[in-house]
Design goal:
This protein has about 400 residues and is α+β, with helices and mostly antiparallel strands. The chain has eight helices and 14 strands. Among the domains are: about 170 residues, Up-down Bundle (f41 fragment of flagellin, N-terminal domain), CATH 1.20.1330.10; about 80 residues, no CATH class. A five-stranded antiparallel β-sheet has the order 6-13-8-9-10. Strands 7-12-11 form a three-stranded antiparallel β-sheet. Helix 2 packs antiparallel against helix 6. The longest helix is centred in the C-terminal third of the chain and has 61 residues. The radius of gyration is 41 Å and the shape is rod-shaped.
């Protein structure tokens, strides 16, 4: 087989070589212009694939940062609202102490009642605080409408008990604001563990001053009554009305039984009773409403005044327990804000690592690229000179 080398073929080979060298140099020029080693995926398929994965990881970090900003705003607003609630609770306690003064006149009690009514309305507004985007802070995940409302004389919670968990860094979650039911509704009464009260219908002037658990091992969580059989004697009855003890009453002395103790003052009458048992639940709005009701009772007899003082004493205990719950709620929110700071540090550290790795994969080695460009430019110039010389070759010149 004869192989024929034609002038056209030589020209085409030279043109192809020139084009290839120009394309190679253009690629290097693009690398120099962008500062990127990976202009296309074919430059280094493995590195390009790794870089895409790192880009996605960086995008996720940005999404986590947006999540963190949103929940930080809500937690910050929760802290502000709970701080205000704490101040309001302190004011309620102060007013209750004032109202508990036996020498206080009806006009003064009425003034305190009026302020408490305003406080009651203000508490409702705080419980319905929003995050500035139309979402309610204390509605749980059902936060599209106001979670609290007053129906008749009772507060109603229409949110839910679900607390969002938001991812703010890889495998790091932070809890959103607390559901309002945990802050305002299900508050323990008494001292948070046990509660005591004077029964309605007492006809003496006995006052329940204090109670506490003195022996946790003996306290079984049951309900008991100190029932007066006379002005100076009493029986201790369990929840089944069985008598488990008796005693002689002395003003201000503690009555101890079943791991608890009660301190009663004043002058109880036969048939009066005081109850003690495990704490129940009451919402803060009902506590304030009970205070208002006691102050609006306008007592005129010693028995009525004793009833009012017992109600005020109970309210003081409930308010103090509610204040502690607000402190716990603020501490919970503070822990989440601290977790956000830790998550921010983690995101920053991860972002630095990812960007350093991306720089290694993508950034151009300037010294190598410039040297390569000079070599490619020289090769292209040489090819161009060869092509120009080849254009001058002709058999007619040889024959001449």
């Amino acid at each position: 087989m004869n192989t024929r080398i034609s002038t056209g073929m030589l020209y085409q080979q030279s043109i192809n070589s020139l084009l290839a060298k120009q394309a190679k140099m253009a690629h290097t020029q693009q690398q120099l212009a962008t500062g990127q080693r990976l202009v296309t995926a074919k430059d280094d398929p493995v590195a390009a694939g790794t870089a895409v994965g790192l880009d996605r990881a960086l995008a996720e970090l940005e999404r986590y940062a947006l999540n963190a900003n949103a929940v930080e705003n809500r937690l910050g607003l929760q802290e502000s609202a709970l701080t205000r609630v704490g101040e309001v609770m302190a004011r309620i306690h102060e007013l209750t102490v004032q109202a508990n003064n036996p020498a206080l006149g009806d006009d003064s009690r009425k003034a305190i009642s009026t302020e408490l009514k305003a406080i009651h309305a203000g508490l409702l507004d705080l419980a319905n605080s929003t995050d500035g985007t139309g979402r309610y802070l204390f509605g749980g995940t059902d936060d599209g409408s106001a979670p609290f409302a007053i129906a008749g004389s009772n507060a109603v919670y229409s949110g839910n008990q679900t607390q969002r968990e938001i991812e703010v860094a890889p495998d790091t979650f932070v809890s959103d604001t607390l559901p309002g039911s945990e802050i305002f509704m299900r508050l323990r009464t008494g001292d948070g563990r046990i509660d005591g009260r004077a029964l309605a219908g007492n006809i003496g002037t006995g006052l329940l001053m204090d109670f506490s658990v003195i022996d946790s091992a003996a306290w079984n969580g049951g309900s008991y009554q100190v029932a007066f059989t006379s002005a100076t004697t009493y029986e201790i009855r369990d929840a089944g009305n069985a008598v488990i003890g008796t005693g002689t009453y002395a003003k201000g002395e503690s009555i101890a039984f079943a791991g608890v103790q009660m301190k009663i003052d004043g002058n109880p009458a036969a048939g009066d009773a005081f109850e003690i048992g495990a704490s129940g639940n009451r919402d803060i709005f009902a506590t304030v409403q009970n205070l208002i009701g006691a102050l609006d009772s306008n007592p005129t007899t010693d028995v009525q005044r004793a009833e009012m003082q017992n109600a005020l004493q109970a309210s003081m205990r409930d308010v103090a327990t509610a204040q502690n719950r607000m402190i716990d709620a603020r501490a919970s929110g503070g822990a989440q804000l601290s977790a956000l700071d830790s998550a921010a540090s983690l995101r920053e550290a991860n972002a630095i690592t990812f960007k350093d790795t991306l720089s290694t994969l993508r950034d151009l080695n300037w010294a190598e690229a410039i040297g390569r460009f000079e070599m490619e430019n020289t090769a292209l110039q040489a090819a161009q000179m060869v092509f120009m010389q080849m254009q001058q070759l002709s058999l007619f010149k040889m024959m001449g």
